[in-house]
Amino acid sequence: NAGVTQTPKFRILKIGQSMTLQCTQDMNHNYMYWYRQDPGMGLKLIYYSVGAGITDKGEVPNGYNVSRSTTEDFPLRLELAAPSQTSVYFCASSPREYRGNTIYFGEGSWLTVV
Amino acid sequence: KNQVEQSPQSLIILEGKNCTLQCNYTVSPFSNLRWYKQDTGRGPVSLTIMTFSENTKSNGRYTATLDADTKQSSLHITASQLSDSASYICVVRGLPVGASKLTFGTGTRLQVTL
User: Fold this and answer.
1) Per-residue 3-state assignment (H helix, E strand, C coil) for chain A
2) A98 touches chain B (CB under 8 A)
3) Most exposed: A32, A73, B15, B113, by fewest CB within 10 Å?
4) How far is A88 from chain B (nearest CA, A)?
5) What is the pLDDT of residues A32-70, one digit of tens each?
6) Which chain B residues are closer than 8 Å to A59 by Cβ?
């Protein structure tokens, strides 16, 4: 009953460091997403993928990269971390881009850049 | 610009009481509206999804209403429980259907007390 699994749960980065947030889902969903949630703000879409090998930018992609080599995994790469990337990151998935489909979210990854 | 506004920003009620959360949106054209519950430190979990043709949808003690003409939705919680303490997020999907067409509200933080 895993659903969407994100790691790590918490991480502190120094300015300029790089890291990868891991995300995997076991529901065989085609669509996967990365969002960030800042205090007092609605979730913002960073990147999304409609299937293995296909990714596209969302609303706030700068400073991030993604890849989708398998259906299950959708890692988010932060290059040259900046304080503005301090946020809570959520990975999510859905069966397909159908208007009525539920989007399933992971538990979140808390990232602090100092 | 597509926007989703929720009110109140926060709310404190006694256990057993009812409450209603509001969501106003400007997303157009409209596809569907979702309510999510987000416990502190967790990812959002779907409560209801409503299309433009649906006026009411229930999920246990949660009842969502939608008025697509006035672009308003409400989430009514009946006989509140301590476990209802969470943030409730209104999410509106626009058309054409696409990953970038979800607009998230900032949420209403509900606290249920004894």
Assistant:
1) CCCEEEECCEEEECCCCCEEEEEEECCCCCEEEEEEECCCCCCEEEEEEEECCEEEECCCCCCEEECCCCCCECCEEECCCCHHHCEEEEEEEECCCCCCCCCEECCCEEEEEC
2) yes
3) B113
4) 9
5) 999 999 988 889 999 999 999 999 999 999 999 999 999
6) 100
